[in-house]
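Comment thread on ticket #2218

A.B. wrote:
> Attaching the input chain for the structure job we discussed in standup.
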Amino acid sequence: MDIYQEALVAESQQPQNHGLLDDHDLQHHETNASCGDEVTITLKFSSDGKTIEAVGWEGHGCVVSQASMSVLSDKLIGASLEDIQNWQKADLLPFFGMDDISAGREKCFMMGLKAVQKSLG
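C.D. wrote:
> Ran it. Output below, let me know if you need it in another format.
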């Protein structure tokens, strides 16, 4: 197992920001129809409504989707809503020290970000 796979497995076993927020401004549920992975996110916005103050999430699915959501949840805190709407795969890959991900795993990898972007409209 290479270092990136080890990082994904470790992240999925001890996920960051796991658990839904009781005090949230937004909640969204997303399912990856092609594989059945699911995630529910809760977001709390800053008082000016321009950044994310707190993130909580729950989900189940493959190691890639769960690890990606875990790392993403940490990176969302303090990020501006405008910036998040523009994030793409290339913005997430460096969080894992990767240059690319196989086409077969891309939907799993991107599910959390797509859920957040859809929820923000």
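A.B. wrote:
> Thanks. Noting for the ticket: The mean pLDDT is 89.
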